[in-house]
Amino acid sequence: MSKNIIICGVGGQGTVLAAKVLSQAAISKGERVLSAETIGMAQRGGSVVSHVRIGSDVFSPLVPQGQADVLIAFEAAEAVRNIDYLKQGGTVIVNKKVVQPVTASLSGKSFDEGEMISYLEKVAARVIAVDTDEACRELGSSKVVNMVLLGAASRSGLIDKEEVKNAIRELVKPDFYELNVKAIDWV
What we know:
By secondary structure, the protein is an alpha/beta fold. It contains eight helices and six strands. A six-stranded mixed sheet has the order 2-3-1-4-5-6, sandwiched between helices.
């Protein structure tokens, strides 16, 4: 049986590393993994979407709309933009924080995190909203949002925490391993 995961956010949040960690964790268990990123204008704060598909019956790296078991969103607006990927009964792990797009800031409009989380709760079977700002303050680094969200996914039973920690050991520089593990354990 396959597992389909969408990871979305904006450039610089660590979505690609999170996808690599999930992929490596599955590969280490001997599972087949296909993944892909749609990056766009990521260097300018644009959308980033990573697809991770795990299982012997997976033949394409892109998750079809309506087939994601879990949507891990590093930013609430990106969760709303990508909700069509989530399958009926799927889970959303979402950062409560909203990153205001430049176009919204220039026009004087703003995105409301409460409205977005409320919308997600109406359309998804399960929503886990995480205050990553609090986590980053407690951990002393703003660069671990990705691992905090993977930690939330592991705590919810969607991914195995120990496998993720082993993948982090393989993919992250040794100087940053402990901080990333603390972020996984924070939730």
